[in-house]
Design a protein that fits this description.
The complex is a heterodimer of chains A (425) and B (503). With 425 residues, chain A is mainly β. Chain A is 0% helix and 56% strand. In chain A, the strands form 8 sheets. In chain A, strands 5-8-3-2-11-12 form a 6-stranded mixed sheet, with no helix packed on it. The termini of chain A are far apart. Chain B is mainly β and 503 residues long. Among the domains of chain B are: 94 residues, no CATH class; 133 residues, no CATH class. In chain B, 6% of the residues lie in helices and 52% in strands. In chain B, the strands form 5 sheets. In chain B, strands 3, 4, 6, 9, 12, 13, 14 and 15 form an 8-stranded mixed sheet that branches. Chain B has a 6-stranded mixed sheet with strand order 21-18-17-24-28-27, with no helix packed on it. Chain B is extended. The chains are: A mainly beta (425), B mainly beta (503). At the A-B interface, β9, β12, β13, β16 and β17 of A face β3, β4, β7, β9 and β13 of B.
């Protein structure tokens, strides 16, 4: 059932503004909607544009527009004449009291058909994005498909209409009230993925997580539009076997994909990487805390304006972490190295004071430790003042060969949890 | 059993204008050509793939798919055309108003004939888990290990003649499939259970609980083993997971658990180890069986040629319950213990907690205790415009002398690990000699274990571990001291809080 009704009241109108709403004369012709465009790009409001042809008489005409059971924002209604024979002007817009209706007073130079376009905002239509990623078996690239699900709870049955769901293709659909439609909006093929193994003790103290990182730019076969937030479901192609007519896929995991602007990265937590084990211990810093005091020399201005010199001592906090690293990851039965990222969260002024990598061989009473050069396998990245990442190319390990990474972080000029500043005048 | 409730109807339109249901023509109801179940154990999710042959006509074809009374996640249903993809195209998926148990695919076809399609969806209610039975020999150096996988179907749906695959690994799920499956359609509120429904719900719960206990009893009666010939389980790595594919096809019936052998390995080298740690009280030794998830070696040290079902190190061991028995020479079994194990990667070691061991005893005695080096430290604090002297900062050293007596009542050699916790940051004098800063005037726990004949390992800033290899009947008496250096501890030792103004 159509709920939006448009009527053309034809004739010369005199003293129209004084006509009460009840007295308005209903339609003589009901022009059908010729085209309808539904635009859901804006997250809160849906823009509907419809075109109709109205037969106008020379002189003043009343075009009546009313609706029921649909949340139209009255103030958003725009009336435009697209095509007419001669000048057509909208003289005024009138809002009858307590009615979901309005009428335009339109002046036409000549009699004849005129194409009008009415645009308005409605509520209760929504579009949400979801993604499906089909990952190649080697996990180097994926096919990313964006789906838009448009939901029509506006109260209006749209017949044949053009739907712009926000991203991707515009499609022609029949859209009834209450329906949801899931449409393929875009397809990005061969999008390179970076596989990351991340250990973040604030998220999970025991397990390493596996993430995929995608970049939303042209170089990485995306970058057509900012990716809206939505659930990403990832599947992986299995190696083809003989009895498989169609290549099987297994579900890898899902994550919420955050809104990703162009050139930005999208990190997706896929699942737990159980073959990469990280244990984190807090160790006592070498040399103890006494050395972690800075004695400054700075001017001191006295009450009487005299200048002297003072030596305040500031306490720093030194934290030393030990990460026991084990990598049992295999590919085709062979052990392989993995790129491991360890995330730590700090604050304020800090430096990485010391890094040491040890190779631990043997067990129990027969353990030998050897400090090994770490500059080729370790990189500390300051993400910002609160986040630091340690990137490690972790070679394969066995039960009798492990790695211990020691990182000492010096957090400077801590005011809390320290003795009062001692002045040595 | 509940009737199959997944239905597929194909509606064809000869014209492409798609008026409402007036021109609907029901042509065929294609049946499942093949079904594949991929079951996950970390989350309640199963991926179902069905292959069907659809008959299409040129123009718009409308296919209805409904799944009332199942646990299928409507957002996961995916339709894939497997052949003639250049002529047949999926336009959209439409969910009708007010329903969450049906949808309709609108397909544009440029041909007439049969096309193979795949329908894929997630359902909840089907899970699998692994469990193991280990039988150790009397010498505790060899073990026979049998691994099982058990598939449980509570989904309300029968999956007959299905290929069954099990995924080992922890996937990330952001929403539960069972929640998505029971979510009402948009605009419809969640149905509130009327008070009258409560007794029915309680009855249903009790029935379910009973069915579980019945299932457990039946498992116990037949020893938990199915008498069928063991099917081969193919194991294959996939990203961070492992995929176990069960040979052939299975009927996965509703509420009928199915247990299959996933591996059967003889003569796994076994090493018991006894651990005592302050993390769980530090009073008793706990026995662990250790074995490696590595390929078995023969006497010459070469890898044995065994099938994947009969060897370790071919796949990770999924987490599951391990039940351990000990076999006497006369083949009687003794139950040793049962415990849950975590996932074990290829090449890593399995450590199965067998339980408390009372054959090895630990007596820890505090032999001596003293307080020394007490220093009352002055400090001044400015109050308004004059300084006040305090006497409250106290330094003192508190020393404890411990003796640990460990006696092994085992008939065989045993490997022990003892881990102790200290309440302050540890400076350790252990097997590597006196550390730098041993005499420092800094707060901390100064642990002197250098007299213990073992490697002493500092686990973290509070934990220290030592290792002993004992012979049968051996008695160890170990002595160590710990000095807690307290610095600037405040007024505990000086209750008067004396203060005086500075002159």
């Amino acid at each position: 059932m159509k709920r939006i009704v448009i009527t053309g009241l034809v004739g010369a109108l005199v003293g129209m503004l004084s006509i009460p709403a009840q007295a308005r004369i209903k339609l003589t012709t009901l022009p059908e909607r010729e085209t309808v465009r539904v635009d859901i790009k804006n997250g809160r409001f849906t823009l509907v544009e419809e075109e109709r042809t109205v037969n106008l008489q020379q002189g003043r005409n009343q075009v009546d527009f009313s609706w029921a059971n649909i949340g139209i924002d009255k103030d958003s209604i725009v009336f435009r004449v697209i095509k007419a024979d001669g000048d057509v002007n909208v003289l005024n817009t009138n809002y009858p009291n307590n009615e979901n209706a309005l009428y335009w007073t339109v002046s036409a130079a000549n009699a004849g058909p005129a194409v009008i376009r009415i645009s308005y905002l409605i509520g209760n239509m929504s579009a949400s994005a979801s993604y499906q990623g089909i990952v190649e078996n080697d996990e180097k690239s994926l096919l990313l498909q964006t789906y838009m699900t448009v939901q029509n709870t506006s109260g209006e049955d749209f017949g044949k209409c053009t739907v712009q769901p926000g991203v991707g293709k515009t499609t022609v659909r029949y859209f009834k009230n209450g329906e949801r439609k899931r449409m393929l909006a875009s397809k990005f093929t061969a999008v390179p993925i970076e596989k990351r193994f991340v250990f973040d003790p604030t998220v999970d103290q025991k397990r390493t997580r596996m993430y995929y990182r995608l970049l939303n730019d042209k170089e990485n076969n995306m970058g057509e539009f900012p990716l809206p937030r939505g659930k990403v479901r990832l599947f992986i192609k299995e190696p083809k076997s003989d009895d498989d007519s169609v290549r099987s896929q297994a579900f890898l995991g899902e994550d919420w994909g955050a809104y990703t602007p162009l050139f930005a990265k999208l990190d997706l937590y896929v699942g737990v990487a159980q073959d990469v084990k990280v244990e984190r211990f807090t160790m006592q810093p070498k040399g103890g805390p006494r050395k972690v005091v800075d004695e400054l020399t700075c001017p001191r201005i006295l009450m009487n304006g005299e200048r002297t010199v003072t030596h305040p001592r500031f306490r720093h906090q030194r934290t030393r972490f030990r990460y026991r690293l084990q990598n049992f990851k295999t590919a085709n039965g062979e052990p392989i190295p993995v790129p491991l990222t360890i995330q730590e969260h700090v604050d304020g002024e800090w430096i990485i004071e010391n890094v040491e990598m040890k190779e631990i061989l043997g067990e129990r009473n027969d353990v030998t430790e050897k400090v090994i050069p770490h500059d080729k396998m370790f990189l500390a990245k300051r993400i910002d003042v609160n986040n630091v990442e340690f990137e490690i190319d972790l070679p394969p390990t066995t039960i009798k060969k492990k790695y211990d990474l020691f990182v000492t972080i010096l957090r400077k000029h801590r005011r809390h949890n320290v003795e009062p500043i001692v002045y040595k005048d | 059993m509940k009737a199959r409730s997944i239905a597929l109807i194909v509606l064809l339109f000869a014209n492409s204008t798609m008026s409402l249901f007036g021109a609907v023509d029901l042509v065929t109801l294609p049946r499942r050509e093949g079904t594949q179940l991929t079951i996950y154990n970390s989350e309640d999710i199963t991926m179902v793939r069905e292959h069907r042959l659809l008959t299409v006509k040129p123009g718009i074809n409308r296919i209805q798919f409904s799944w009332a009374n199942t646990l299928i996640d409507p957002t996961s249903i995916d339709f894939r055309i497997l052949d003639h993809v250049d002529k047949v195209d999926l336009l959209d998926t439409t969910f009708p108003s007010g329903r969450n148990d049906a949808l309709q695919w609108n397909i544009r076809s440029g041909m007439a004939g049969k096309i193979p399609v795949e329908i894929r969806y997630f359902t909840s209610g089907i899970t699998w888990k692994a469990d193991y039975v280990g039988i150790a020999n009397q010498g505790e150096d060899k073990m026979g290990l049998t691994g099982y996988v058990r598939v449980l179907n509570n989904s309300g749906e029968l999956y007959d003649n299905a290929e069954v695959r099990l995924v080992v690994g922890n996937i990330n799920l952001v929403e539960k499939i069972a929640d998505l499956a029971s979510r009402p359609p948009p605009g419809v509120p969640y149905p509130a259970a009327p008070p009258a429904a409560k007794p029915a719900m309680r009855r249903a719960f009790l029935e379910k609980a009973e069915s579980y206990s019945r299932a457990r009893e039946s498992r116990m009666l037949n020893g938990g083993m199915k008498q069928d010939k063991a099917k081969d389980v193919r194991k294959q790595g996939l990203s961070e997971y492992f995929l176990f594919t069960i040979e052939g096809r299975e009927d996965i019936k509703n509420k009928e658990p199915k247990r299959l052998v996933s591996m059967k390995i003889t003569d796994v080298p076994l090493a018991p180890i006894y651990k005592l740690t302050d993390r769980d009280g530090g009073q008793f030794f706990t026995k662990y069986y250790r074995f490696k998830n590595k390929k078995l070696l023969d006497d010459a040290g070469a890898e044995k040629k065994l099938s994947a079902m009969e060897n370790l190190g071919e796949s990770p061991l999924p987490d599951g319950m391990v039940r351990l028995f000990s076999e006497y020479d006369n083949q009687d079994l003794a139950y040793v213990g049962g415990t849950a194990t975590k996932y074990v990667p290829i090449g890593d070691r399995v450590e199965v907690n067998v339980g408390r061991d009372s054959d090895i005893t630990m007596m820890r005695r505090l032999k001596d205790q003293r307080i020394e080096n007490v220093v009352s430290r002055q400090y001044k604090r400015r109050i308004d415009d004059h300084w006040v002297m305090y006497y409250d900062h106290i330094d003192y050293d508190e020393t404890f002398v411990y003796e640990e007596e460990i006696v092994s009542g085992k008939a065989v050699d045993a490997k022990l690990e003892v881990e102790r916790r200290f309440a302050k940051d540890v400076t350790l004098w252990g097997s590597e000699g006196k550390p730098r800063g041993w005499d420092a005037d800094i707060a901390g726990a100064y642990v002197d274990m250098h007299e213990i004949e073992s490697r002493i390992e500092k686990v973290d800033q509070n934990h220290v571990k030592y290792f002993l290899d004992t012979r049968p009947g051996q008695r160890w008496v170990l002595t160590y001291t710990v000095t807690y250096k307290h610095r600037n501890v405040g007024p505990e030792l000086n209750q008067e809080k004396r203060r005086e103004p500075l002159r």
